[in-house]
Each structure stands twice: as structure tokens, then as C-alpha cells.
């Protein structure tokens, strides 16, 4: 089976990007787009021989759209991408953008999701979902609980964050390893 051509959008470490790069037998990371010029994830991408694109502060979304199309991208994965994707871009890539979010959506959308859940003493977890026009509001693909309410008092915020990251990597591996053809996504 042909491997789907992915673009991965990052802003930081790129540890979730690393998971996708390891899955090269089932998917093809063709392009890594970063909102930050010094994102360590860019180094991972370059080491893996993947083309990178750093965005300007004021993103030229139509130019990015054209770049993605020129690379025949079939799926975009937002893996720690800290910019809001505008509605026009989302509509132009309808059902082709997946986001990783560190909470059990629909609870705690937006920024600082782990801190918010921790402060509210609510269950901690991770979600992979389709991106639509509503922030962190698209259809859920897969979700994993990381710490339940009763056990939460045993963990510090830093420990909870660590467990969330481990769980994100596991969820990414689990879901994307089934990525033989993009038709399974729809
Ligand atoms: C992840 O926790 C993701 O959920 C959040 O940013 C982090 C990205 O980590 N939005 P990395 O860059 O993949 O290491």
C-alpha cells in the first residue's frame, strides 16, 4: 500500500514528530512546518532528511497552502503547534488536519490544558481529533485517560505533564501505525 504524505506542524521539541518519523514504513513525513525558527523539532526533521519550513510571525496562510499542495500533502498533523489555524485554511483542508491535545476533550480546550485540568483536579488525558472551525472542537479520533481523579493527589504537576507526554507518544504510535491508507481516516 502507498504511504500517505504527511506535513507535521510543530513549535517546540518535536517529540511527537519523532514518533511519526519512526513510523516511516507506514507513512511519509514529507514536510515539517515550524512556527518557531529555533524549535528543536526542526533539528530532528533535518536529521531525518525531511524538508522544513519556518513560518514568519505573521503567517502567509495562502502561501503555506500552496507549498503543501506543491508537495502533494494528504494529511496535516498538528503536533504541539502553538498557532491558531485560521478558518479559511481549515476549510481548505477539511478532514485532512489532525491535532494532538493534552486533555480529555471536550474538557479543557485551548492553552495550558494540563495545568487547567490539574488545578481543577479533573481527570488528565490526551486526545487526537480532527480539526474543524471550533478550537479543539472537531471529531475525536482517539482518547486516553492518563490519571484519574482519585489518583491525582499522588502526582505533582510536573509528574502529570511527564505522564501526559508519554501517553501522547503511545497514542500517536497506536493511531498512526494503522495509517496504511488515508481512506481509513474518513
Ligand atoms: C504536546 O504536549 C502537545 O499536546 C502540546 O505540545 C506538546 C508538544 O510536544 N500541545 P512535542 O513538541 O511533540 O515534544
Describe the overall structure.
Helix content is 32%, strand content 22%. It is of the alpha/beta class and 186 residues long. A seven-stranded mixed beta sheet has the order 3-2-1-4-5-6-7. Strand 2, helix 2 and strand 3 form a beta-alpha-beta unit. The longest helix is centred in the last third of the chain and has 20 residues. The chain is globular and about 50 Å long. The mean pLDDT is 95.
* Quantity of strands, as a count: 7
Largest sheet: 7 strands, mixed
Based on CA inertia axes, which overall geometry fits? Answer: globular
Order of helices and strands: EHEHEHEHEHEEH
Which kinds of small molecule does this entry bind, naming each only once?
Answer: 5-O-phosphono-beta-D-ribofuranosylamine
How many whole angstroms does the radius of gyration measure? Answer: 16 Å
The helix content is 25-40%
SSE blueprint:
Blueprint: E1 5-10, H1 15-22, E2 28-34, H2 40-47, E3 51-54, H3 61-70, E4 75-78, H4 87-92, E5 97-101, H5 113-119, E6 124-130, E7 140-147, H6 157-176
Parallel strand pairs: 1-2, 1-4, 2-3, 4-5
Antiparallel strand pairs: 5-6, 6-7
Helix pairs in contact: 1-6
Bound molecules: 5-O-phosphono-beta-D-ribofuranosylamine.
Amino acid at each position: 500500500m502507498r504511504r500517505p504524505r504527511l506535513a507535521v506542524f510543530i513549535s517546540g521539541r518535536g517529540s511527537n514528530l519523532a514518533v511519526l518519523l519512526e513510523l516511516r514504513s507506514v507513512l511519509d513525513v514529507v514536510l515539517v512546518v515550524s512556527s518557531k525558527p529555533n524549535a528543536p523539532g526542526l533539528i530532528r526533521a533535518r536529521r531525518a532528511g525531511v524538508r522544513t519550513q519556518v513560518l514568519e510571525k505573521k503567517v502567509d496562510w495562502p502561501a503555506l497552502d500552496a507549498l503543501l499542495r506543491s508537495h502533494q500533502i494528504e494529511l496535516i498533523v498538528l503536533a504541539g503547534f502553538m498557532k491558531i489555524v485560521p478558518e479559511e485554511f481549515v476549510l481548505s483542508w477539511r478532514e485532512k488536519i489532525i491535532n494532538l491535545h493534552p486533555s480529555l476533550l471536550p474538557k479543557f480546550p485551548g492553552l495550558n490544558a494540563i495545568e487547567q485540568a490539574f488545578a481543577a483536579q479533573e481527570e488528565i488525558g490526551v486526545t487526537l481529533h480532527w480539526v474543524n472551525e471550533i478550537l479543539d472542537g472537531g471529531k475525536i479520533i482517539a482518547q486516553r485517560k492518563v490519571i484519574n481523579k482519585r489518583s491525582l493527589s499522588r502526582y505533582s504537576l510536573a509528574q502529570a505533564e511527564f505522564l501526559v507526554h508519554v501517553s501522547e507518544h503511545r497514542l500517536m504510535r497506536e493511531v498512526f501505525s494503522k495509517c496504511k491508507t488515508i481512506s481509513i481516516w474518513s
